[in-house]
Design goal:
six-stranded mixed β-sheet, elongated, Alpha-Beta Plaits
Length: 308
């Protein structure tokens, strides 16, 4: 199946001379949740802006559903819903008015049943007659999603969708995003909450200094680049790690009551068996042990840090 979004050799240089994107190649699969991660100024917003027809590229090409974003602007833009980071809505319109009006902007005929369906799915139906100005920040963000879905797009861009949203409402919005994906909508997500990407994404792309430095299946990325930590809960606290154990590069935590061993999941041998033997030989006993996998946030920080 061809990708729903295809980006080839995309570049953007602003009038100031800032090169925001450098020969970016990227393909987004139909029906996936794709998380685009990168530090501030990495090029995320420029890339989204170009695909959505808001920013003019300097070079390269982009197609959405096979439609070139320049030559077939209307057709490509009609396939896209964009939820911006900023809360930009008419404060004195009602929820129903603003969502219905947005549908009309895309030349779609009035469809109250669809608008009702979107508002119900986003738990906005009871507030449909409320003016935007009376809503909480979290509800306003839901209205932005409703506006983006009003014209029945096949692709939805979510730029920091849960910024400023409380934890409970964030959980609800994750469920909404999953339901959208399950209905066939392709989701492209940018977020500073990397746990969102870890929880939600099918694939992860990392952009830094205008270049895509990695695109990978989330599970495979964590398998390839992740590290595991073995934490040993000691029977007696240690003041320092014995010199004989130096090759393991162990660290102490919890006031000397925990010994932490970090190992590469890709290595042929983890070294755990040898470590346990050497601990016994050194007379160090432990009451319990457990392992933890590095998080996507740690992997992301490491990836970006390598390229500074």
């Amino acid at each position: 199946m061809p990708p729903i979004i295809s980006v080839s050799g995309l570049s953007k240089t602003y009038a100031t001379g800032l090169q925001a994107l450098k020969q970016v190649d990227l393909e987004i699969r139909r029906g996936e949740i794709f998380a685009l991660l990168g530090p501030n100024g990495a090029g995320k917003t420029t890339l989204i802006g170009i695909v959505c027809g808001i920013v003019t590229p300097t070079g390269g090409s982009v197609t959405v559903g096979g439609h070139d974003i320049v030559r077939e602007y209307r057709a490509s833009r009609a396939m896209i819903g964009l939820v911006p980071q900023e809360l930009t809505t008419n404060a004195f319109e009602t929820v129903w008015q603003t969502v219905s009006f947005t549908r009309g902007l895309f030349g779609k005929p009035a469809n109250p049943a669809h608008v009702e369906k979107v508002l119900r799915e986003l738990s906005l139906w009871e507030r449909r007659k409320s003016k935007i100005i009376t809503l909480s920040g979290g509800m306003k963000r839901r209205v932005l999603i409703a506006k983006a879905l009003a014209h029945e797009p096949q692709v939805l861009f979510l730029d920091e969708p849960t910024a400023g949203v409380d934890v409970e409402l964030r959980q609800d919005m994750w469920q909404v995003i999953r339901a959208l994906r399950d209905s066939g909508v392709t989701i492209i997500l940018t977020t500073h909450y990397i746990e969102e990407a870890e929880l939600m994404a099918d694939r992860v792309g990392v952009i830094n200094k205008g270049e895509i430095i990695l695109v990978e299946e989330k599970a495979e990325l964590m398998r390839k680049l992740g590290q595991k930590r073995l934490t040993l809960h000691l029977a007696e606290p240690l003041k320092e790690v014995p010199s004989k154990l130096a090759p393991y590069r162990l660290s102490l935590s919890a006031n000397g009551r925990e010994l932490v061993y970090t190992y590469d999941t890709r290595a042929a041998r983890t070294g755990i068996t040898g470590l346990l033997d050497d601990l016994t030989a050194a007379g160090i006993g432990f009451k319990d042990l457990h392992t933890t996998q590095s998080s996507l946030e740690e992997i992301f920080v490491d990836l970006v840090g390598r390229r500074r």
